[in-house]
Prior knowledge:
Chain A has helices at 2-27, 42-53, 70-75, 95-102, 146-149, 151-156, 175-185, 202-216, and strands at residues 30-36, 59-65, 82-86, 112-116, 133-139, 159-163, 191-193. The first copy, chain A, is an alpha/beta fold. Chains A and B meet through helix 1 and helix 5 of A and helix 1 and helix 5 of B.
Amino acid sequence: MEIKIMKNILDRNQNKADEIRNLLTLKKVMMVNIISSPGAGKTTLLERTCEALGAKFRIGVIEGDITTDRDAQRLKKYNIPIVVINTEGGCHLDSHSISKVLDNFDLDNIDILFVENVGNLICPTQFDLGESFKLAIVSTAEGDDKPGKYPMLFREAAAVLLNKIDLIPYTNFKIRNFNSDLRKINSHIPLFEISCTRGDGLAEWYKWIVEQVNSVTHFKHGVPRS
Amino acid sequence: MEIKIMKNILDRNQNKADEIRNLLTLKKVMMVNIISSPGAGKTTLLERTCEALGAKFRIGVIEGDITTDRDAQRLKKYNIPIVVINTEGGCHLDSHSISKVLDNFDLDNIDILFVENVGNLICPTQFDLGESFKLAIVSTAEGDDKPGKYPMLFREAAAVLLNKIDLIPYTNFKIRNFNSDLRKINSHIPLFEISCTRGDGLAEWYKWIVEQVNSVTHFKHGVPRS
């Protein structure tokens, strides 16, 4: 019984996600569904990425948060369109909540729409939002066993950002353990070792995301924001 | 419709949780439901606590994990009863899964039953397991905004362990911000600032947990494990 209910919820989510994906393909908008544990660095990654690519691409952000607009407040200074979805206790975004807020964006003038999902390594993975791809962020402070223990996200994501590598000297994190677990789950997934506070590895991340957006929005990219 | 379904699930969970609570009260077992994000230090806290209190109290552990038994393997060396519940992708434990494994424990010879919930700051908070109380763990590396952004757990927990305080010098974590948010949500909750790897603050934690178990199991505690 519970399985059937869950399947109905997921089916309805999938139908709406397909609609969104069709619309974004038509509008040549790349939507990136960013998933991580609480505090892995999603918002700081968006801050760095807006600083580095905000002049080259037109960026929009959907902020999924349980109850506050704190992450959105941090991004206000970049003068980009931002919409907050408060889930009121809900543990993930779904395609219906995304669909309801898409009208707030001028999609003809957006190249990349980042969705910062609720901080949760599990539930958001199950709900397709109509994104171009999922992005996994994990912090070294969480330990090197996360791909092995929470494999779903690492199986589905298009890339993994290992953040806070500046903390490795102060923890027992072993990159070879992390990498070995990750490769068992997803042998070819790109892995970027970064520090959003110190800047390590971000150039490679920017290069990769630019390649992705160019492949999605090739008729539209490179238009300077007005 | 979805709200009704959710309510039925929660009602059934509550009924079973009440049964468990009655049984554990009868058996004078204190059950502690440990909730945190992935990698905040739940298993390391259990390692330290088994080392410090394993001779004084009879400890049992239920390990909630999505797919592996890695955390249980780390605790094997303490020679305590451990049962693993693999949720197969599920984002939380519920009272039915706890009820099914309780038969594996000799409850007459257990003082403290620690339940390490699935690493998730959101969903586990909604499901009463029949525990004596919930314990919140949060790592400084997650940032000082977690009580504000994920208030549910901090509202319900009996105590908060702020772990990895040894990392504070290498992050932008401000204890006054954390504390100020926490006090708005739960003004009197005990807060322990600890480092499970370095040992800071653990003596206060042991003292507190001993007080709790003494109040629950006062006819039974202090019996050395055979």
